[in-house]
Structures are given as C-alpha cells and as structure tokens.
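Practice problem: predict the structure.
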Amino acid sequence: MSFFVAIFLGLLLFVSAGLNVLLLLLSVGTLAGGIDPDGGNYDEVHVAGQIGGEHKVLQIAIRGAIAEGANPLIGASGGTVSAVHRALRYARAEDVEGLLLYIDSPGGGVTDSDRIYQMLRRFRQHNPDLPVAALYGDMAASGGYYVAVAAEHIISRRTSISGSIGVIMSAWNFAKLAKDFGVEQVAIKSERTPYKDMLSPTRALTDGERTMLTSIVDELYDQFVAVVMEGRGMDKDAVESVANGGIYTAKQSLANGLIDDIGDYQTALDWFGARLGHEVTIVEQRRRAGLADLLFGMRADSAPSVAQLLTTSTGPRFLYFWQGGR
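Answer:
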C-alpha cells in the first residue's frame, strides 16, 4: 500500500513541477512578446504600395473596441493604448515618413480614446513634417472617430459608417425583479455620502443621481465637440448639428465636413505621394507569435473585444462607444 501511495505522490510532484515550469516559460514568453516593444519580437509587414519601397509610411491599426486591459498572469498592461504608444515609439526610431491610422472600431473608453488622441496630437506637434492620415474600415464610430480627428486628412471607404458623436453610460437595474423574488441588497453608507451606492442594480436611480450623472455626460460631450472642432476646423454650431449620436455614411460624412475624402488604400497612397512628392509604401509593425500564442492559440495582434471593454472595471463606465457597432 505504501508503494502505491509513494507512486501517487511522486506523480503529483512531477505534475506540479511541470506546471511551475510551464508558468515560468509563459511569463517569460509574455514578457518578451508583449511588454518590451523594442525587444526584436515584431515584424514589419507590407500593407500597400510598392513592396520594398524606401519611402515608408507606418500604419497604426485600431481595430475593435478601444480598451486597455491587463495581463492576468503578471499584471502587465496591454491593449489599444499600449499598441499605439508602441507604434509611435517605433515611428520615432525608424525612418518613417508618415503615419496612416487604419480605424475599424465602434469606439470605447472615454479615457482610452482621449489618451490615443492626445498621443497622436503630440506626435504631430513634435513632427510637423510627417503627414498623418486616417483610413476607415467598416466603421469609425464614437471613440473611433474621436481618434480619427487627430489626423490631418481623413479618408472613408464608400461603405464605412462613422459618427455616433456622443457619450453613453449604461447599467442594468434589477430593482423590480429583486423585489418580486424577495432579494435585497444591504448597503452600509454614511449619511454624509448618500450617493455612495449610486447605480446599484437593486434600487432605482434618484432624481439627484440622474442629474449628477447627466452633468458628467454633458461635460464629456462638450469635450468631444471641442476635439472635433479643433481637429476638423469646424465651428461649434456645425459640430453640434451632427453630434447627436447619429451615424453617417461616407457621403453624409463628407457633406457634413467630418471627413476629407472617400476612397481606399490607393487614395491614401496618392495623398501621401502628393504631400511628400514621391511614392510611398505602407507598412505595419506586427508582433510575432510568442510562447503563449503557440501554447494556447492566442492571436499575436488580437484587438480588444467588446467584452474586454465592458469588464475592465468593476461597474458602469463612461464611454465614447456606439453600442450598435458591437
């Protein structure tokens, strides 16, 4: 009997050691593949234009929900903001003559969208001779459009949807359902902090709470309007006339002054060529698959999902996000 117990314990020890080694390798692979942007784990991929051309424009792809997450294993941040930051560092270090923002996004977090916008604006201020354009995929809505206006020239595909200029915060409320089933949430709070359990799913929103939240949404809306005014050179009335949360086709966006052109990659190549005086090739920096990708089948350059966007905090968030674009 003791012999079999010893064998069983030995097998457990072997499995435990193997798991520890796997976790260690996964940590190293994650560090090499996602944290160090200059660690040589990224490839330059041809996107459009002449292959091997000496005049390069760097494409920065913003696909899916604009969200910044965290690595569950080691806590390292990663997501849309980190990807753009990495690409801009690459652009400063390499012989890049321009930037093309390829945007196919329904938007995302208010702060994440604004961080990307400000990074791009600062890049343009420090590199005034480098042209920056944006090209849409299926959509560039809400936060996707917020980011696009950081470019000096915006091109929409004829099939792209854009707009949804506005702010939203949504939360589920189960107060009636909880009452029907006799469920009650107990919230202990001071009389001096009556708003502490605001947006609790088990009680209705008070008028005062709704007024408070609406004032925040209005302020963030005004910021969105100001960003479009600055980026597009439009006056406030012109922006607010289209900043009603609605979405627009390419032709409607062009008529409303929200974009500059309707086209595709060739249109972008022509614009960069006219701006720089010579032909260009568009390239993109893409991460090579690391150990975690090989072991668990994860994509090396996967975009944040809507689920990631909605679950990166413990409760409702203020969003520059088109819910219909999920």
